[in-house]
Specification:
The chain is an alpha/beta fold. The chain is built from 16 helices and 9 strands. Strand 6, helix 12 and strand 7 form a beta-alpha-beta unit. Helix 8 crosses helix 9 and helix 10 packs parallel to helix 11. Bound molecules: coproporphyrinogen III (CP3). Coproporphyrinogen III (CP3) binds next to strand 3.
Length: 346
């Protein structure tokens, strides 16, 4: 086995390691004072994402503090609707606001023709990160998965249960399927271009996969993800792809088998023992500390961390949270987490 390879890539190759590599979803963000300082220089969040100087700097910030085994490109999943021509805004205290698309006629505003031009600054950020991150650190590129991106495009904002998107998908699967096809096209091309510029792994975030019924999960989560994985592997068969069908429950198994991903992120609702027995033999698992435990800190947090390390120690595992780190998280708790993981197995 190639022990010179980055720890993160070894885990994704299926190796079981004495200590797992680790990173945190949303590791660059508002819980860090140095992030808030740079963020305040930019009124518009999308402009911030499209400014390579700033995006490179905030990607590097958490690496300097905690020595994570992977860097994740700083961007957002909603750059794809923006690049397709939909009106997308991030409002202070409100989150994303989009001019909704709710019918086949509305899809006329979208075009894949300018995606690469529009996202050129993101590719530049990836290229610069590939050169600037420490040599033992892996670089993760990412995109939103079609279903989750579609929920924002159709609802026009975040929501708890995505009623308009789910109803459209049942009422007019052909029409809704056209939107998903546009997203498959744009997302595949976007991820392939990130890899071309130096991303070593790509992750697809399907944050709202868990609101779907079994049949709808098959059609709008598994099928489009499988198609994106197929297109990436056609060009880059060796590059690992990770999925995050958050909230999928036992359907994680189907997801792994049918999409052919190399790794999955587990949400914190997933029992470690069940996942170790049923999922870890199929691919590398990543997760799944409750992000609230990281806010709370203390002995219970440490116990949760150790239970996850122990529970996944017989197979390939990447330590992470079960969902993104929250702005309320004390940076010293992340410090403690990193000490526990780096000391594990030694
Ligand atoms: O460090 C990293 O993980 C990389 C950066 C990253 C961001 N968003 C930056 C961001 C990543 C991987 C994302 C993914 C993302 N964005 C997802 C999927 C993962 C998840 O957390 O569920 C989703 C659903 C979004 C959409 C999104 N972006 C929302 C709903 C919001 C508003 C909520 C919030 O936290 O403010 C964002 C904004 C956003 N994306 C911020 C960051 C750091 C905060 C904006 C700010 O700094 O003002």
């Amino acid at each position: 086995m190639d022990t010179k390879q980055k720890l993160f890539l070894r885990a994704l190759n299926g190796e079981s390691l004495s200590r797992p590599p680790f990173w945190l979803m949303r590791q660059a963000g508002r819980y860090l004072p140095e992030y808030r300082k740079i963020r305040s220089q930019s009124k518009n969040f999308l402009e911030f994402c499209y400014t390579p100087d700033l995006a490179v700097e905030v990607t590097l910030q958490p690496l300097r503090r905690y020595g994570f085994d992977a860097a994740i490109l700083f961007s957002d999943i909603l750059v794809i609707p923006d690049a397709l021509g939909q009106k997308v805004e991030f409002r202070e205290g409100e989150g994303p606001v989009l001019e909704p698309v709710r019918s086949v006629a509305d899809l006329a505003v979208l075009t894949v023709d300018h995606v690469h031009d529009h996202l050129a600054p993101v590719y530049e950020t990836v290229g610069r990160l590939a050169k600037e991150i420490p040599e033992e650190t892996a670089l993760i590129g990412f995109a939103g998965a079609p279903w989750t991106v579609a929920t924002y495009m159709v609802e026009g904002k975040g929501s708890k249960d995505y009623p308009i998107a789910r109803t459209w998908a049942y009422r007019d699967p052909e029409g809704f399927g056209q939107l998903i096809r546009i997203l498959v096209e744009a997302t595949s091309a976007y991820l392939i271009r990130q890899i071309e510029n130096g991303a070593e792994i790509v992750q697809l975030f399907d944050t709202w996969a868990g609101v779907l019924s079994e049949s709808q999960f098959q059609r709008w989560v598994i099928e489009p993800t499988a198609e994106i994985v197929r297109r990436i592997k056609q060009v880059y068969p060796e590059v690992p792809v990770m999925g995050f069908p958050r909230g999928a429950g036992i359907l994680y198994k189907d997801f792994i088998e049918k999409t052919c991903v190399n790794g999955v992120s587990l949400d914190n609702g997933m029992p470690v023992k069940w996942a170790a027995e049923n999922l870890q033999p199929l691919c590398t698992v990543q997760g799944n500390l409750d992000n609230m435990a990281l806010i709370a800190g203390g002995e219970l947090m440490e116990k949760e961390i150790r239970a996850i390390l122990e529970g996944f120690s017989d197979g390939s595992h990447i330590f992470n949270l079960g969902h993104g780190i929250l702005p309320e998280t004390p940076p010293e708790n992340v410090q403690r987490l990193s000490e526990i993981i780096k000391g594990w197995g030694s």
